[in-house]
Design a protein that fits this description.
With 325 residues, the chain is of the alpha/beta class. The chain folds into two domains: 28-143 and 315-323, Quinolinate phosphoribosyl transferase, N-terminal domain (Aldehyde Oxidoreductase, domain 3), CATH 3.90.1170.20; 178-306, Aldolase class I (TIM Barrel). 38% of the residues lie in helices and 18% in strands. The chain has helices at 3-17, 37-53, 82-92, 121-149, 166-174, 192-196, 205-214, 232-246, 261-274; strands at 29-30, 34-35, 66-73, 77-78, 97-100, 107-108, 113-120, 156-157, 188-190, 224-229, 252-258, 281-286, 304-306, 319-323. The strands form four sheets. A six-stranded parallel β-sheet has the order 8-13-12-11-10-9. Strand 10, helix 8 (232-246) and strand 11 (252-258) form a beta-alpha-beta unit.
């Protein structure tokens, strides 16, 4: 077995025992409990908008002949969105019954049936495109995420650069990725613009970072605090000041190494180790991370790779609806 394969197995084993603060998908959906209230609210908002844009502004109760239909995968992938379609039908088309052959998070192959529908012919035709758009978009994200996660298990996280907000993050979760922050208030993130907006322009960025960390009330944090840094000095300062001021806190510090690349990230991790600070903070890499470069990140020393490539601009899974008699 090669080095890369051993590292993949190691990351999978670590994922079984180590939960990163970026892993917040359970607040949206679990296999045991299904959809959370937070996600259901998002579904309701998006369903209303999607249907309104398709000219549907009131529920359809059906009056035409009944017909059967089958939703079929036209490619291999991970199914996502069935719970959202259930919500749509329950509110907007209660006369349509659906029998899912593949539920959320399940793998399907080209030609495999995803669902069988039965109901009023006019209603099924009316909602066909919206149903397929929902399943295609979310399944495409889940499928792409699974592709990345197969190389970097429990290490790849999406960002807040989304198309459908929490729904995209749900699809990432179903595909085996990390959701990162669910909302802006979900965790405190201090980025370059936050530093630039500070009143005292005489301070350097590392001095501003030190000041901001010292002023934090960690008992008020929802999940974690994240600091975006642009160079090694800022990263080391963030870890050192956090250790000095918040070493007894239960809150977790994440240092985002923005556009560092694998080698610079590895150097930062090594310097933190030499200073006895590597366990003080989680390291997150961001910027110019591609699927083809994942192998280069295995020995970089970072804990999380954050990217919008797993959910933004991803091709939808090809799905069709076939009408029967």
């Amino acid at each position: 077995m090669g080095v890369i394969e051993n590292q993949v197995i190691l990351r999978i084993n670590m994922a079984d025992t180590t939960k990163l603060p970026h892993d917040r998908g359970h607040l949206l959906w679990t296999a045991e409990e299904g959809v959370s209230r937070m996600l259901l609210s998002s579904m309701d908002r998006w369903v209303t908008a999607i249907l309104a844009d398709d000219g549907i502004d009131s529920p359809a109760f059906g009056s035409s002949d009944r017909i059967d239909a089958t939703i079929v995968a036209k490619g291999d992938g991970i199914v996502a969105g069935t719970a959202m379609v259930d919500h749509l039908l329950q509110i907007w088309a209660p006369t349509i019954q659906v029998n899912w052959r593949a539920s959320d998070g399940k793998k399907v192959a080209n030609g495999e049936e995803i669902a069988n529908l039965s109901g009023c012919k006019d209603s099924i035709l009316l909602f066909e495109r919206s149903i397929l758009n929902i399943l295609g978009h979310l399944s495409g994200i889940a499928t792409e995420t699974r592709r990345w996660a197969s190389k970097a298990a429990r290490q790849v996280a999406c960002t807040r650069k989304t198309t459908w907000g929490l729904l995209d993050k749900w699809a990432v979760h179903l595909g085996g990725g990390l959701t990162h922050r669910l909302t802006r208030e979900d965790a405190l993130m201090i980025k370059e613009n936050d530093l630039a907006a500070m009143d005292d322009s005489s301070l350097t960025n590392d001095q501003k970072i030190a000041q901001l960390i010292q002023s934090q009330q960690t008992d008020q944090l929802v999940s974690f605090i994240e600091i975006e840094v642009r160079n090694e000095k800022e990263a080391l300062t963030a870890a050192a000041v956090w250790h000095q001021t918040h070493h007894n806190s239960d809150a977790e510090l994440v240092i985002m190494l923005d556009n560092f690349g694998p080698e610079r990230c590895k150097d930062v991790a090594a310097q933190l180790s030499d200073m006895g600070l590597r366990n003080v903070a989680l390291l997150e890499a961001s910027g110019n991370i591609t699927y083809d470069s994942l192998d280069d990140w295995f020995e970089s020393g970072v804990d999380v790779l954050s990217t919008s490539a797993i959910n933004r601009g991803v091709p939808p899974l090809d799905i069709s609806m076939m009408m029967g008699e």
